[in-house]
Amino acid sequence: MDILKLILSECKRGENPYIYGTKKIKILKKRILIIGASGQLGTDLTLQLRKKYGNHKVVATDIREDDGTLSKEGPFEVLDAMDYEAIEDVVIRYEITDVYLLAAMLSATAEKFPMRAWNLNMNSLFNVLNLAKDRKIKKVFWPSSIAVFGPTTPRQNTPQKTIMEPSTVYGISKQAGERWCEYYHNKYGVDVRSIRYPGLISYKATPGGGTTDYAVDIYHKAVKHSKYICFLDKQTTLPMMYIDDAIRATLTIMDAPKKAIKVRSSYNLSGLSFNPIDISESIKKQIPSFEISYEPDFRQKIADSWPQSIDDTDATKDWGWKNKTSLEEMTDIMLKNLSD
Ligand code: AKB
Fold first, then answer.
1. Is pTM beyond 0.90 here?
2. Per the CATH hierarchy, to which homologous superfamily does domain 3-200+242-270 belong?
3. CA 76 to CA 58: how far, in whole Å?
4. Mean pLDDT per 10-residue run, the chain (340 residues)?
5. Is 184 an active-site residue?
6. What ligand 1 atom has the least distance to the C-alpha of 200?
7. Shortest-distance Cα residue to atom 6 of ligand 1
8. Ligand 1: does its nearest atom lie under 6 Å from the Cβ of 305?
9. Domain extents in the chain
10. C-beta neighbour count of 154 within 10 angstroms
């Protein structure tokens, strides 16, 4: 795009720095790289960041080719999160300032491939932290998870700081990642920000390999077959969140002034807490014929080691976090969009 057109389009979106001051200069200079953009969180986050900053400013990348969802409106590249040189090359070519590292192996798959999970989850993080340490990028977002907690953690209203003895490969990698994020911030001044996501529920992209995935799958099966066989038991209460809230949290923490971010490991984030009975009851209100049955598998043990609800006082205090979407509202949105 030539520079005149760029400035004109940015004027229309209220982003012209000459009119709107120095904060807007920062926005104009911002160029974002998303690694692992085709996953569940990445898809919605890429679309939202492009809406906010402009399509051409958000470079989506993934280990797999895109099906058109992300490459239609903006730049897309195939990129391996484990390949430092390849990431550095994209950073230089696109003059990237902020990196969102979303590539990871989630809890259920990681139990099957422990070493692959550890290598992917840790090496990708080091690649991005080292780019920031060498001042090749300015800001990093890295997602942590409720999986950092374990069977010895208090399960109700789990505090920000508490016993953390994760019993899954994924949880161990996320906890180690949190320690490294804090270390890189304290030692090298790296501006890294992180959230401990609960299970995320969305309709644009499906999750892959997680323990909380049932809460997405259930909506797909409800719409298609009016029944669902759940791989977790009926009373398994877990922290969850609708994707719009998770994206809003991500944009808010990344926009917050540096000094507001007091936690440089990762913030607790609370949204909803429900079990398979609760979600099936909310579906039944709209699809009365819906039936659920239970066949718990190895994922039950993972779920049983995680908290049931989360205390997110620090996120509220430091950068104004508040969840919005209720279970009933989420069911409404999910069923409507999956039926279209
Ligand atoms: C998983 O189930 O592994 C993820 C998570 C809670 O981080 N959704």
1. yes
2. NAD(P)-binding Rossmann-like Domain (3.40.50.720)
3. 9
4. 53 49 72 98 98 97 96 97 98 98 98 98 98 98 98 98 98 98 98 98 95 98 98 98 98 98 98 98 98 98 98 98 98 96
5. no
6. 8
7. 199
8. no
9. 3-200+242-270
10. 13
